[in-house]
Model the fold of this input.
Amino acid sequence: MYQSRPHDEGLCVVDFGSQYTRLIARKLRENHIYCEIFPPSKDSPRFSYTIKGVVLSGGPDSVASDLASPLPSWVLNLGVPVLGICYGMQLLVKHFGGVIHSGVSREYGRASITYENRFMVDNLVTANSPVARIWQGLSQNHTVWMSHGDHIAQLPPVSVQSGGFEVVGRTARTIAACASCDGKVIGLQYHPEVKHTEGGSQLLSNFARHVCGVASLWQPNSMLDTLTKALQAQVLSGEKILVACSGGVDSTVTLVLLTQIFGKDRVQGVFVNTGLLRLDDAHKMAKIAEELCLSVHQIPAESLFYQKLAGVSHPEEKRKIIGATFVDVFTQFALERKTQFSYLAQGTLYSDVIESGDGGTGPQVIKTHHNVGGLPERLPFKILEPLRFLFKDEVRMLGAELGIDREILWQHPFPGPGLGVRIAGEVTEQRVKILQQADQIYIDFLKEKNIYHEIWQAFCVLLPVKSVGVMGDERTYEWVVSLRAVNSTDAMTAMVANIQMADLTTVAEKIISTVQGVNRVLYDITTKPPATIEWE
Done:
């Protein structure tokens, strides 16, 4: 599998199970600091970029528990600065001989931190002391976000290994910030990655640049050259590549990138009509291929996918069936053409990898993405995933570098399994047609109102329930559709889009009056977390 990273140095984020771990990675990348998320495994990961510092995330465990995740020895053995956040801080304090107490000084939500006077000049933290470098430029008092049940009762003693620790900041109830005397081991009881913490983004940037000495800044809008060199080194001369195409942002960027590097003769796009696509997606893919001079072959496979999904309702099972069927179709295509393809390329993103529990992000699987966890172990192709370590906004920047039209790059995300995961319950051809029509009405309306591009992602979901209604003075018993619209930057967190109630009512009326089989429309007002963006 293609694993070359798109940058040469950065930080490592160790995930102890915090709901905020992904936000740490996002905040660092927004500050042009490359980073990846790794599990707290006993054995050190095989890093393929230079690690300049480590961030330990928070987590649900208590360090007082015998079942708590320990501090991996490789973290300190790397010999680089370490920042511990919440649980990460408590692990560091305990490791160096400090004392942690449980359940006495709990803090949840906003709190006010005050930094020690010895680090202050004109009400700002200065960098005169190595300890204070990470807080440089922050005001003496500001708001931070807390979420903890354990707290520091006693700092670690002076030792050869650490040189001792000192308190940097406090809230009214706890030690909120501490550091070793050389400033290379830093602990925060609060969460700088959360937007409610004032100056949190600056703090993370200070840690990377002033403490870790990161000099090579991550510039996602100039990564084309790096990716090109890495792919040219990976794919041997003459090797050919199949690219899974959906017409969406990720697969289109993947296809254009590979075609520009290796040419149309070596890169073959394959668009599989699964029967789970939006209305006119097949036509749109043909138009994209023509406009961008790409080689794309379309395969009608609707009946095959409906057959495979018959009677299946569980979301994970549906995802894996769709992923496996995709591979079967690609394999058959290659055999029929009697052409030796060496690679199957996919538009897998870093958020897909994280949510599937793959790529070193811990054991927790939020949902399997068809292009990550749904593939069989033995394939006739090597997997090529050029975008595997990029977030969505970074992929769009890369697409702009490649010259892809903005209308293509800024279309709303569409899941690889398609409508198969927007139909809760069993997938049938009839239910797909209902959802396609409802979704098209919804999206067309958003475009007519000029609010489509103000929304990260909008779509309809067909629920596995029927409701009683009255239409034309007659009783009906038909399906329920839910509208979903969210705003996000990377799909890791999402807020509900603020669509006017009058507009939602208009959409509902159009769907019910146009789409046969629907008599009720809802609007999903759940954020991510606790929900995911997609329903399945």
Observations:
- DSSP finds 14 helices and 20 strands in the chain.
- The longest strand covers residues 99-115.
- The radius of gyration is 26 Å.
- Confidence is low (pLDDT under 50) at residues 358-375.
